[in-house]
Design goal:
12 helices, 5-stranded mixed beta barrel, alpha/beta, about 450 residues, binds iron/sulfur cluster
């Protein structure tokens, strides 16, 4: 908790894990400069709100959060994705002190300095070398790049965050190593487009621990696999070189887990989305991946009710998910995002049709996910403990990313086992989302 004499900042972080990493960086910089952090509006000299602007609901949530901070504190600086829509923010909340855009750390720090000069006390400037983390101590998001070179028609991220900018591999590995040394047991690799890592740098060679390494996803994954922590890959666009990751998974270097946003199963709709449209190829690649690594757990997200989606397109999507047999699936009814190219497409799908399709999709996928969980019963697996509460241990297995996937619930607690410990369990049961297990 901040000492009374130091200038103190309240911080609100909204949105996706990539935004969370931005928040962690800003907080780290604030602490490095000697600012105190306050968990309440009243205890802060000013509040920074790191916003999300991905869909209309997120915009509304961000505007609400700004209003709440203004009401609770009165002095508010806005940053993050919604920051690119400054006029909208100022129209809703004319009282904000400053508005800065996404991943613009210098601009947000400059706005803080202008309102609340940094103290000059070397003792308050001491921060742990791994920085400030907003996740529990035992897992951390590792952001490897910013921005995206794709132009999916439903998405405005490239217009907010710009084209792909990768961090050199040595810098990413140094951060990963610091995190693991500070107690992190699971690294969650995130970016807008993880597979494209290094393309912008032409896979330039960088150095880590005196060794030359290419700034390339396979190289990064292999090196992360040497650290004593789990490595889980998110937002992997299905480029051909993703195939090279499967042997690393089969060898146990990185988790046998791929989070691949596939979005649809109809080639016509995929083309309208400006996504690669090779559904058959994706199915045969999934089959090949499973041959190489039978333990592979696949997570994906889909959109139903995209403009122009016919009943036939939707049937193709259902056929696709039945064939693909994905383990974890999120599905959203299409909702227009201000500024997205897809808004200009013909034949919007009526809301009730979208909702009906969403429900039909989820019913089919729920059966698939349940069958997948049922197949785990009787297996032994290594799990990472997240929490111990009420005589139970709440853990996750290799197939469960935090926040989005299921849990492994273990009856009983052991005195010397706590969050961040790995234990071996035997899976004894399942429900719609979670597994139940007992220690081996
Ligand atoms: S890959 Fe498509 S959906 Fe993902 S950030 Fe890039 S443009 Fe947006």
């Amino acid at each position: 908790m901040a000492a009374k004499s130091e200038p103190t900042i309240g911080f609100v972080s909204l949105g996706c894990p990539k935004n969370l990493v931005d928040s962690e960086r800003i907080l780290t910089q604030l602490r490095a400069e000697g600012y105190g952090l306050s968990p309440s509006y009243q205890g802060a000299d000013l509040v920074v709100v790191n916003t999300c602007g991905f869909i209309d609901a997120a915009v509304a949530e961000s505007l609400d959060a700004i209003g709440e901070a203004l009401h609770g504190n009165g002095r508010v600086i806005v940053t993050g994705c919604l920051g690119v829509r400054e006029d909208e923010i100022r129209a809703a909340h004319p009282g904000v002190l400053a508005v800065t855009g996404p991943h613009d750390y210098e601009a947000v720090m400059a706005a803080v300095h202008a309102q609340l000069p940094a103290p000059h006390d070397p003792f308050t400037s001491l921060i742990p070398p791994q920085g400030i983390k907003l996740t529990p101590r035992h897992y951390a998001y590792l952001k490897i790049s910013e921005g995206c070179n794709h132009r999916c028609s439903f998405c405005i991220i490239p217009s907010m965050r710009g084209d792909l900018v990768s961090r050199p591999v040595g810098e990413v590995l140094a951060e990963a190593e610091r995190l693991v040394e500070s107690g992190v047991r699971e690294l969650l690799v995130v970016s807008q487009d993880t597979s494209a890592y290094g393309v912008d740098l032409k896979y330039r060679t960088d150095f880590w621990n005196g060794r030359p390494l290419a700034t390339r996803l396979t190289t990064l994954a292999r090196e992360l696999g040497q650290l004593p922590a789990w490595t889980r890959l998110h937002y992997v666009y299905p480029y051909p070189h993703v195939d090279d990751l499967l042997p690393l998974m089969a060898d146990g270097l990185i988790l046998p887990y791929l989070d691949i946003p596939l979005q649809h199963g109809s080639e016509r709709i995929l083309r309208a989305m400006k996504r690669p449209a090779a559904t058959e190829k994706v199915l045969s690649r999934i089959a090949r991946w499973r041959e190489i690594c039978p333990e592979l757990v696949l997570r994906s997200t889909f959109i139903v009710g995209f403009p122009g989606e016919t009943e036939q397109d939707f049937d193709q999507l259902l056929e696709f998910i039945q064939q693909a047999q994905l383990d974890r699936v999120g599905c959203f009814a299409y909702s227009p995002v201000a500024g997205a190219a897809a808004n200009a497409l013909a034949d919007p799908v009526p809301e009730e049709v979208k909702q009906d399709r969403l429900q039909r999709f989820m019913e089919i996928q729920a059966d698939i996910s349940r069958d997948k969980l049922a197949m785990q019963v009787g297996r032994e697996m290594l799990v990472l403990i997240d929490e111990v509460q009420d005589g139970r241990m709440i853990a996750r297995g290799p197939g469960d990313a935090p926040e989005v996937d299921g849990l492994v619930i273990i009856d009983g607690d052991w005195e010397d086992v706590g969050p961040g410990d790995f234990i071996e369990v035997l899976v004894t049961g399942y429900d719609e989302h979670d597994l139940f297990a007992e220690p081996v």
